[in-house]
Amino acid sequence: MNTTALRHTLTPAAAVAGAAVLLLTAAGGASAHVGVTPDKTAANSYALLTFGIPHGCDESATTKVAITLPAELNDAQPTVNPNWTVEKVTEKLAEPTKLADGSSITKRTSQIVYTAKAPLDHELRDALVLSVKLPDAAGTTLHFPTLQTCETGQTDWSEIAKDGQDPHSLKAPAPSITISGAADAHAAGHTGSAADAGTVQAGTAQAAAVTSTDADARSWAGLAAGLGGLVLGGLALARSGSKRKAESAS
Question: What is the CATH number of domain 34-190?
Fold first, then answer.
């Protein structure tokens, strides 16, 4: 095969390889941060917040995850995860806060701390689920600064974008959700009783974690299919170029 034919044959393969690298880089970046996925965001509703722990700190295994609750939340109910122990950290309020039902509180849950029973390997991921009552404040963004402690080092996911700043430019953004409009019918049916809401949450917490994992699996499956299509297309193009060269030479 002459040099020109070789160049034409390699060009499609190089294009395929380049596209594959770009796809893999994008996928890696999308899953790099500790983030939160809510099952709903409706104002004044009960929601399950799934915090994804995708990797350790510079390849060091994760040993503890401390999630700080925003001031708009007074409490959170952590879902049991067999890989972790969990505790609530409370703080005393400067002055009593009156709740919607007329009662008052003098302290609130300020942080939920998960401690790994065995360090979570850098190449493995896990999901931590909290049940919360979202405030009646549509349009408000709630930030959950999260301190990830590893066997070596820490990562403080607490950066919040300033006005006009691109959140994607942050190196360690705090997980966040934005509250949407009025609660949907399902949520509205469980806003009157915390006990009722707890029953619903207990039955769906595991499903929320599984859904998050399945979504990741589907994402990687789609990526694999896309790469496969690129490779097959590149090979077909290379064979076509070689055939045309051979016919021209004859």
Answer: 2.60.40.2230
